Amino acid sequence: MIGYNGYFCMIRSSILFLTVVALFSGGISHAQDVTEDKSVWEKLGEDGGIFLQDAGSFFGAPLRFSGTDWLITAGVAGGTVALMSADEEFRDLLGSDNTASLNDDFWDIPTRYGIVSYANIFSLGVYATGLATGSDDWRRTGRLLFESISYSGISVMAFRYVFGRSRPYEGNSEWDFNWFETSNEIQSFPSGHTTVAFALSTVLAEEIGGVWAGIAFYGMASMTAYARVRNNQHWVSDVVAGAGLGLVTGFHVISQERARERGNSSPGTGLSIVPGVGRILFIYRLP
After folding, report:
1. Domains of the chain with CATH codes
2. pTM score
């Protein structure tokens, strides 16, 4: 299972990335990119600046909430509390006898998909491939993946510390909250694996595009959510909250990138409907 140690690894990765940027972005390098006249260090500096800009936009969003935004937030919170009232029934319906994350069965596959350390290795690998080959597409996708995983992971840590909810395998009530605790046994809300899976899948599905990419990646993320409930690691409300957090984070970094491509500093806020090939996306952008 992944507790605070996994997310501290993610934070260390973020710090390492930004440290490299700080050390080398101002340096002089003659190594030129294959497709444009920018050195590797210049690209690192540019991406580091975008990482910080998007982080400020994401974490500072509540400071710019309108009345409508707060009403939506209150509605989501109320819906989550209402879902918690049915958590015990869902556990009886969907849960198995397992009390471990990994049980040497099929469900280990989607569970591993949501492990934050694996997701970070993958995202940084994609980014490094883009740098090494001069592919701006790979580099951009790697950065977006790392942004989505980082912002959502930090949010998960904060929520878990505040709520301190007991995991289902502890045998306590779904209303057992311990508040401001760090023990893994009381880090149930929200589901970290599910958050990572949806943060990863959202960026991959949107970057690759197409109906089948959406089915494959969102399907895998959904299986991650089910596996967490099946193995009694999380309540249903935990995985629903994690899925929502992963989706919001993924769409936020995607919308920020699309705005930069259009030459805008901000993609705008509110609900928008975006038609695509074989699908329609309903996206709510953070202010």
Report:
1. 4-285 (1.20.144)
2. 0.81
